Amino acid sequence: MKSAFAFLALFLCSFLSYAQPATIAFDSTAWPAVLKRAKQEHKPIFVYAYAPGCRYCKKMEQTTFRDKAAATYYNATFLAYKVNVAADTAFARRYDIVGFPTYLYFDSTGQPLHRSSGEKPTAAFLADAQAAFQPSTAFYALQHQYEAGNRTPDFLYRYGQALQYSTQHHKPQAQVLTEYLVTQSAEQLKSEKTLRYIFEQNTPPADEFVVQHQAYFTPYFPATAVQKRAYRILESRARQAGSSSQNEDFKSVRHLAYTAFTDTARANATAVINFWEGRHDWFRYAQATRRYSQLPQPDSYTLRKTATYLYHFGKEQGPQKQQEALGEILNVLPILLRQERTYESLLLAARLAQQAHRPVQARQFAQEALTQAQQEHETGDEAKALLTTLPASPTQKQ
Asked: Where is the composition biased (Basic and acidic residues) (predicted)?
């Protein structure tokens, strides 16, 4: 009988162990206690820094952290510790954490080895753990080599890649890329390795290279992705010029639009829209968008963004200018709605029509939004609330 009970207990333990989902086992004690334990056990430390409301953090917790391969490796290799940096701001300041999720790797004495960040699949997450123990890939080993003067091409390439995911306030990412590009010949600059390295970076040197050499990237990236990146760079520079008092800034943006883009009319129109956005001149912003909407196949993102900004900020220039701007954007709405007749876009149209003191049009858009909400399985609560603020239609009054 005893042996039967022993067998049953063993079976239940094995079953429960198997049934429980694998996950990284985070130490629930305080950071000093984790450091002490690491020294005693001669075990390196993995730190997961998160913040409430971080959707990428939640995705990692629900997927990669629960992957059997990831959980098994991390639990066997590290003491794992998680820290809410919104609550423990001292920890965030000490280790210069400005993005989430951030992953820190320490040796058993508490010295930092490596850091990374972002939502990652299991393979990349495991690669990070292994990178921590290799001087050729560990972030802090690379940082020390850079500070010691290493500027070889291969090193700059590896350090530049590590900097992309370091989530720090101040990092020499742009400088490292500039130094790397100087080491490359004209042919090397066109290589797939270099072009992929540049395209993945979001720094001024990378932006300049992408926008000036768009054709280099199309063999390795979708043409739409390259074009989108180039236009976002143009838009950003135009907004900066709009917020500047130097007229020369916008001249350089116009020059970029005419020299770096094949569709110069679209590029110039995009630059003008974003220039007025930077100036917060909402009437000219709407006017420029209306002109842009007359081009073949205008981008719905641009039309929707202008409509949204006018709804929220159009009143900044006073009632008269607001009404003039609304008059411009209401002429754009039919084009936007042909491209994306969604609940959100119809609701936005209704709100703009209401601001423009056109209750009949506002009611029509709001009712169409309700119909669309049913198709999209939305509640339509915002449209319902808007309808209660509008005067009844003539048929409803009878």
From this structure: 375-384
Element (H, E) at 48: strand 45-50
Q: Is the CA virtual torsion 169, 175, 178, 179 positive or negative?
A: negative
- The single-letter DSSP state of residue 295 is S
Nearest to 57 by CA among 96, 101, 111: 101
103, β-bridge pairs: 48, 116
**Cβ(149)–Cβ(197) below 8 Å:** no
> How far apart are the C-alpha atoms of 352 and 28, rounded to whole Å?
51
* Intervals of the chain under pLDDT 70: 1-21, 393-398
Q: Is 113 helix (H, G, I), strand (E, B) or coil?
A: strand
Q: What is the CATH number of domain 20-133?
A: 3.40.30.10
**pLDDT score, position 247:** 78
- Provide the pLDDT for residue 394: 58
Where does CATH 3.40.30.10 sit in the chain?
20-133
How much is the pLDDT for 380? 96
CA–CA dist 156, 198 (Å, integer)? 12
Structure token pair of residue 98: 């400005």
Beta-carbon contacts of residue 221 (< 8 Å; ≥ 6 apart): 199
Burial class (CB in 10 A: 0-12, 13-18, 19+), 312: exposed
